[in-house]
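As the next step, I needed to go through one protein, both as residues and as discrete backbone shape codes, included below for the reader:
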Amino acid sequence: MSVASLSVLAQTPPTLTKQQQTVLSGLETQTSHYGTLARQIWDWAEVGYQETKSSALLQDELRKQGFAITPGVAEIPTAFVATYGSGKPVIGILAEYDALPGINQDAVPERKPIEGKRAGHACGHHLFGTGSVAAAVAVKQWMQQTGQKGTIRLYGTPAEEGGSGKVYMVRAGLFNDVDAVLHWHPADRNSADPSTSLANITAKFRFRGVSAHASAAPDRGRSALDAVESMNYMVNMMREHIPSDTRVHYVITRGGEAPNVVPDYAEVYYYCRHKNRNTLKQVWARIMKAAEGAALGTETKMEVEIIGGVFDLLPVESLARVMYQNLSKVGGVTYSPEETQFAEKLSESFGAAFGSIRKPGEAATVAPFAGISNDPLSGGSTDVGDVSWAVPTVGMSAATWVPGTAAHSWQAVAAGATGIGTKGMMVAAKTLALTAMELYQNPALLQKARQEWLEARGGTDFNYEALLGNRKPALDYRK
């Protein structure tokens, strides 16, 4: 399908029913309103488990629209569930709203950090949360107007970035009665493939030694920083002897305060990922041995806190095809002349590190549908993975960023606060709304999806055990 054809579809899609046209028109009229909400969350840029204002804003919006709100679910103050309707089917929509620490950027196409700001929405979760709320409200209004039976449920899910917020919500049984879950994610393209992701375990390793004067009495000290560096050295040597598609990365979060004092405390924060959970567990056990060996060799004490752990995404191709068909009806993002100028200027900053340069006009297209692949091309991880093993789940991406933009970049932060981000967000909201409507109206789709999902999960004998164990939510992991 050509770009021109998609543009026509986005304006007056010939395959839309009158009800669908009404829902899409209603969402279009609310673009400015939802854009304002998203921009407010972008301004706040609250990190995982600290999204107090962002969560409250979305809850207030849903409450005004007639949803019943249950705040503070799964022992997480910023998590919530918003419900409208009753009975079956139950369709859930996920909403995220946490920012990333250590990166920020103004809404301009050249590098310009905002002084004093310590976090930014480099993954677009301000759009994710707001767009999902927009979709849920649109579905609620449609149900109200048509008398459609069932339940629409919006899940406010904090701390996706390393905090595994959804895992605790799955563990608490909040998805047990749901028939299907819909989600989306900001990106530099529009797609709805049955993609997978990497399972992930994250932890903070803390070493405690003995402080001493680094010059006058070094023999009396036992360096916690030496332990961290020893662990990192062993893990880095281990990379040669683990599956090549494993991903291990870390940052030293504490390394001492002054060079002339032997550090008695140091901390390193690790991520380990693999597409196979069992392989991940095996590699993680070796990382644990490296930490234990580092403590033994440096005569320090080690403690480990598992911060997060997420499953790989379990794709359901039949649901993905439904999502794709609706995304194709909605179409992509058409830039205004000013937005095109912004995109072209921003593209100049990509360089070789971002791969091949893509044209801004690609945001107007929808990527061809691709079947299930066992190779998680994105290389990322998400706590949506645990949800997908608890209930049939389907997602999509929308072009909220200029084509060619990398996630977790200042370019993503910049575009996410412009009309480019808002337009992409509304593509997602419209697609999610149409998909939910179709699932309500065609129970056979849900039955087919559930059967496919059960087979992919390994039958009814599957027993869910969170990778992070029984720990309580790591509410302070960003502090």
Observations:
- The chain has 14 helices and twelve strands.
- Confidence is low (pLDDT under 50) at residues 1-13.
